[in-house]
Design a protein that fits this description.
By secondary structure, the protein is mainly beta. It has one helix at 364-368; strands at 4-5, 16-18, 23-28, 35-43, 49-56, 65-71, 82-83, 90-99, 105-113, 127-133, 144-147, 152-154, 159-160, 166-172, 185-190, 198-201, 208-217, 220-227, 232-238, 249-254, 261-264, 270-275, 296-301, 310-315, 333-339, 345-351, 356-362, 383-385. The strands form 6 sheets. The protein has a 6-stranded mixed beta sheet. A hairpin with an 8-residue loop joins strand 5 and strand 6 (65-71).
């Protein structure tokens, strides 16, 4: 594989190396759609990286469906994305990819009714569906409903715990004036490899959504949540494999009421990807939607997500400031993060106000600022925070 030096990203899936940011990246082919949003990533047993997202005219429209692109091992170009779902009366959103231990690849996503007269938000009609691939993500089965309770939304993929339990983060949407503002979080738990599921609610989690979980040690879980107040990332713990959860508490990381992603690295550190931004004027007011969805940052924690002393930007964005300028900022949002078997860290997020999906690859050392010399901090690499 020959990686070119970045001349400026091209929207055709070509992989480039950016020497200034010291990372590898690609503008995954956006296809013919106006919207590309909510990506998910997976490494397959063959070493292929799969990236899925929802695409169409606009979030909530009935032409929004799930698409998948593939980066085969050794390739320097992402494949052209192809539809896997084909709904024409529902909006399919928030896909994630899960490798079942039996070898199947599951694409799981929310599926809601399209807009109705006088109703813009139809998330309260959402169910969770899955489609299965057994050929490295090339073809997919027909959709089937996994979680039929209406109003069920999800973002992070299924996680397999040390005792074999499967856990899937949810939030619960209702048809009410405070529907988007007061959604609580929950988890779907399966002890029979996805045959049946039961729900566990997170106490006092109204407005704390997108729960993304990692297992710190056997049975000790921590979940990180987006905040509808656009204030901070929140954190909840479980010490019984997810059967009970603590009331979410704020972390030091800002949140702008936009999606986050988290993974536990092979080093034991937690890596959380998010927009390092918040809206102080909205603190205490649930349902805030500031336009500040940049930069994209990765924060590392060595104490289970209580503190994050190392933070690096991987996408700086335009960053205009002031109320009169905030809508000039392009949006770089809904990031996801995984670590592959070779130790590389892969990220994806909606790029340039959902014009497409951007994929980024780097290492833990890159995040820590140890890519040049003898591990010294390089001030031009886009790092922020403590060093």
């Amino acid at each position: 594989m020959s990686i070119q030096t970045l001349p400026g990203l091209t929207p055709d899936g070509q992989v480039y190396y950016d020497p200034e940011m010291e990372l590898t990246e690609a503008f995954v082919n956006p296809g013919p759609w106006k919207t590309a949003h909510g990506p998910g990533l997976l490494e397959t047993p063959e070493g292929t990286i799969l990236c899925c997202w929802f695409a169409g005219t606009y979030e909530g429209d009935t032409d929004i469906n799930i698409v998948v692109s593939r980066l085969e091992k050794g390739s320097d170009k992402w494949s052209e994305p192809t539809y896997i779902s084909h709904n024409d009366d529902r909006s399919d959103q928030n896909p994630s990819l899960f490798l079942n231990p039996n070898g199947e690849i599951w694409a799981m996503y929310t599926s809601q009714l399209g807009r109705q007269p006088g109703k813009d938000n139809m998330q309260y009609t959402s169910v969770v569906k899955k489609q299965v691939s057994i050929d490295d993500g090339k073809t997919w089965s027909e959709p089937e409903v996994v979680l039929p309770e209406e109003g069920t939304f999800a973002r992070q993929c299924v996680q397999i715990l040390s005792n074999g339990r499967w856990i899937y983060g949810l939030w619960l949407c209702t048809d009410s004036a405070s529907g988007l503002a007061g959604d609580p979080s929950a988890f779907a738990i399966s002890d029979d490899q996805g045959m049946t599921w039961r729900r566990v609610d997170v106490p006092e989690s109204s407005g704390r959504v997108h729960p993304s979980v990692v297992e710190l040690e056997d049975g000790h879980l921590v979940a990180f949540m987006r905040s509808r107040e656009a204030d901070f990332v929140y954190r909840s713990e479980s010490t019984d494999y997810g059967d009970t959860w603590t009331v979410p508490e704020k972390t030091p990381l800002p949140n702008n009421n936009s999606g986050i992603g988290v993974t536990k690295l092979s080093s034991g550190r937690i890596a959380l990807i998010y927009n390092h931004n918040s809206a102080p004027a909205t603190y205490g007011k649930k349902g805030a939607w500031p336009a500040l969805r940049n930069p994209v940052s990765i924060a590392l924690s060595e104490d289970g997500g209580k503190t994050f002393p190392l933070i690096r930007n991987i996408e700086r964005g335009e960053g205009y400031v002031g109320d009169e300028n905030k809508f000039n900022n392009r949006q770089y949002e809904y990031p996801t993060i995984i670590q592959t078997v070779d130790g590389s860290i892969h990220c994806a997020y909606a790029y340039r106000t959902r014009q497409g999906v951007k994929w980024v690859k780097l290492t833990e050392a890159d995040i820590m600022g140890k890519t040049r010399g003898e591990g010294t901090y390089n001030p031009t690499s886009g790092d922020v925070g403590a060093h």
